Amino acid sequence: MKIELEILKKIKQFDTIIIHRHQSPDPDAIGSQSGLAAIIRASFPEKKVYQVGAPSAGLAWISDQDEIADDLYNDALVIVIDTANRPRIEDDRYTTGAYLIKLDHHPNEDVYGDLVWVKTGASSSSELVMDLVDQVEGGLTVTDDAARMLYAGIVGDTGRFMYSATTAHTMQVVAELMAYHFSTTKINQKMDNITAGVAKLSGYVYDNLVITEHKAAYVVLTHDYLDSIELGDAGSSQIVPLPGKIIEVQCWAIFVQQKDGSYRVRLRSKGPIINQLAKEHDGGGHPMASGARAKDQAEYEEIVKSLDDLARTYTGE
């Protein structure tokens, strides 16, 4: 049996389904999680379907999250979507269900779950959800709202179709979603709008960006500064692509200081492969887009040096 049908079989088997995603969510995490939940609800109205995780104010326009009691995990199917490794899964209760499915498009280096479907060629987990729908031949029903959420996820993870993971198949899926009744214009505008805080942060990034000798770049966003402009860790996500707009920059890192003094690290690249560097620092992800952690200034300086070395040895092939 092909894996898509195995997933559908498990969805049919359980009366309670709880869907998790990764911490510090982006549009694809929320879009794929909530889009899949909406599809299952429409397909099987008798089932109880929940999407769980800490609220994300900046992405509440895509979907809200559910607060549920621990005992709902008894005899529940748990689906973790868009999360490559276990430490990044939002809400540790994902281990307490009766059966666990992993759905993801990141490299499958942390193999967890009773059933695993990882498709690294997909642009996003939202695209993967539509692939599931299309492969089970009418077994799942897509609503207008589900299509809206999945569209937002794809637009977010492809950088508005600028990133190399965007394929002809991606555009076919987007065309399929656009046939539903929702406003792509409103979503595109929503994702393009920035707050006054993000505008200030954008100027700060360009003013304080350091470009190394070998065309790597980095900027450090302190916790105090983000607080001063009323912008937290999640709010800083919109400025991550900015260094890449500079012609001379080949790869870059955004260091976001946390309350405990450690740093969340967002790594991006136009060419050098950066996910191995991320894995060396408690992270991982795609070859051109990854995340990591630095426990202190010494570790973030180590990451900067390694990033510069990657840029130095990059041949353009």
Throw out a few tags for this protein.
single chain, 317 residues, alpha/beta, inorganic pyrophosphatase (n-terminal core), Diaminopimelate Epimerase, Chain A, domain 1, 2 domains, 6-stranded mixed sheet, 5-stranded parallel sheet, 36% helix, globular
Mind explaining what this structure looks like?
The protein has 317 residues and is α/β, with parallel strands linked by helices. It folds into two domains: 3-191, inorganic pyrophosphatase (n-terminal core); 196-313, Diaminopimelate Epimerase, Chain A, domain 1 (Roll), CATH 3.10.310. The chain has ten helices and eleven strands. The strands form two sheets. It has a six-stranded mixed β-sheet with strand order 6-7-8-9-11-10. α8 (223-228) links the parallel β7 and β8 (251-257). α2 (27-43) packs parallel to α3 (125-135), α4 (144-157) packs antiparallel against α5 and α4 (144-157) runs parallel beside α6. The relative contact order is 0.11. The mean pLDDT is 94.
